[in-house]
Amino acid sequence: MRHLLTLVRHEIRLLLISPTVYIASVIFLILMGFIYWAILREMTLAPQDISANAQFFGLFWLPVFFLVPLLTMRSIAAEKSRSTLESLFSTPVPKFSIILSKYLSAYLLYITLWALTLYFPIITQSLFPETISNNNLVDPAGMLGGIIFIALSGLLFIAIGIFASSLTRSQLVAAMLCFTLLLIACIGSQQLEYATFNYLSPGSFLYGLIEYINIYSHLEDFSLGIIDTRPFVFYFSSAYLFLSLAVNNIESKL
Amino acid sequence: MEKPVSISVNNLSRKFGTHLAVKNISFEIQAGEIVGFLGPNGAGKSTTMRILGGLLSAHTGSATVCGLSVAEDSLAVKRKIGFMQENNPLPDELRVNEYLRLRAELKEVPQEDISTEVRRVMDLCDLFRTARRKIIGTLSKGFKQRVGIADALIGAPEVIIFDEPTIGLDPHQIQGIRKLIDSLRGKHTVLISSHVLSEIEKICDRVIILNNGHLVAMGTKAELKEAFITEHKLSVDLTGEVNALLEHWRSLKLDFEVLEEQNKGNDSYELILKLPAETLDIEPFINTVNPLNRLENCRIQGIHIIEPDLEAIFLAATTRSWDEVRLKEV
């Protein structure tokens, strides 16, 4: 545990002095600000069934595809290419702690960036109190549900990024691998449900399984403020799986 | 009283794909010894060192460090070892003191002792005054090597492994690192690999020579000289006609081979002679070619025996092992 805290501090320091992280953060906040503004504009043009927060978090995949690769691509790949990972392995620190520290630091940054977007409705509400007083932009249940979904799904996404980074020495290849795996996780699970919707009976095991791994179905519940415990198991276990694969992959090369 | 064994390696082997990089090597190193690990490129030195450092696993055989099994108790072994890797990988973006503090924390130096310990190793490696606040990426090769050595010394580990610590350094820096490693004698067990054989010869108590994954020689310089140096070399300084002298010696039925003839100007020469392996005692030869035995047109100014250095022993040991491999193949 002592090693883990030391390493997390070190990894966060490395992330905070990395220009890539600042570029990713700025792009993320500009993009999310623009998306929020576009949602609000739509709401002013026509009445919407879905709240602004639900629409905003519904587009979670858009920043995930570039933010996660940028935050995780250097974590292991860069250390492998400079051989500094071996230098860490020469200390009495378990390999899983080393990988976990990289994971936790990237995850903390990911959550911090998303947490900053919670200010969007607060800022809007405070700037235009009269215009939107009835729309209730600051919807605590929806916002809490949305951020819990982001925090939960982030467990898996960052783990995918760390795993992709463990597969190669090239940061570019790691980013591309991460993007592809995220695409499969986000879009693939949704498309799989669409493709099998007409062929499977709702009560069957396979139907339940496909619905269980569909990330969008989790989002729907959370954005309504419904906290279901089943996705917790899915995201924690799948994140653990990818981290274990990353550790195994590194150990197999030693 | 015999010192306790610090490193013990038994029938260690390691494969990379189909290539057997280390083949059944066994050796022991006693506590406090400084042992040189020599071999041509690809001999298996770094692989063996990485196995001892817990960075690689062995396919067969066993290794213990301070009585702990490297395979079964890897983390405990790492607490006993300071390991400076080949090419000395360092994070370019950190400052020297930040990096050493991090390493001290990871090596479980007590929190209250970290500052003192980091200061101690920086003083030892002459980093405190000159480079403690410098970013590692901006340091010269010599300073980076010192940072790597300082890292290996953190926590005063019982065993220190240096894999090519002097690579890429100038003679002044090599001398500085030699003095530093020499100062560890008796306090730490040091295993050091280097291609600078003159340095190994000066600082090491014993030498282990690997070739093609095999352990081909092990012992003190004197022991290795006895085992591998079967021929004597003489240096003869003379003035006058070299050929006349050589003819004269041949007429005396002396058995020798001229390895080198160097013209030093002003009609003076230096001859390097090799005497055959059977010539166990070279005194009779020297007496026969005594400088007092003057010829008309040639005068011997001096004769001395060329003592074989570690390079000669290394070349003899590795050449013999290659010859043995060829013989087996035939």
* Chain pair forming the biggest interface: A-B, 20 and 25 residues
Overall shape of chain B: elongated
Shape of chain A: globular
Question: What is the level 1 CATH name of the largest domain in chain B?
Answer: Alpha Beta
Poorly predicted runs of chain A = none
Head-to-tail CA distance between termini of chain A: 24 Å
Tell me the series of helices and strands of chain B, N- to C-terminal: EEEHEEHEHHHHEHEHEEHEHEEHEH
Our Rg estimate of chain B from Cα atoms comes to 25 Å
Observed structural traits:
A: 254 residues, 12 helices, B: 330 residues, alpha/beta, Rossmann fold, 2 domains, six-stranded mixed sheet
Characterise this structure.
The complex is a heterodimer of chains A (254) and B (330). Chain A has twelve helices and no strands. Chain A has helices spanning 2-16, 19-45, 52-58, 61-82, 84-89, 95-116, 119-127, 140-166, 171-196, 205-213, 215-223, 230-252. The mean pLDDT of chain A is 87. Chain B is an alpha/beta fold and 330 residues long. Chain B is 35% helix and 30% strand. Chain B is built from twelve helices and 14 strands. Chain B has helices spanning 45-52, 74-80, 96-106, 114-124, 128-131, 141-153, 171-182, 197-203, 221-228, 242-251, 283-288, 310-329; strands at residues 5-16, 19-30, 34-38, 60-65, 68-69, 81-84, 159-163, 189-193, 206-211, 214-219, 232-240, 257-265, 268-275, 298-306. In chain B, the strands form three sheets. Chain B has a six-stranded mixed β-sheet with strand order 6-7-8-3-9-10, sandwiched between helices. A four-stranded antiparallel β-sheet of chain B has the order 2-1-4-5, with helices on one face. In chain B, α7 links the parallel β7 (159-163) and β8 (189-193). The longest helix of chain B is centred in the C-terminal third of the chain and has 20 residues, at 310-329. Chain B is elongated and about 80 Å long. Classes of the chains: A mainly alpha (254), B alpha/beta (330). The A-B interface holds A 2-3, 6-7, 10, 14, 17, 82-84, 86-94, 254 and B 53-57, 75-76, 78-79, 81, 83, 85, 87, 89-93, 102-103, 105-108, 151.
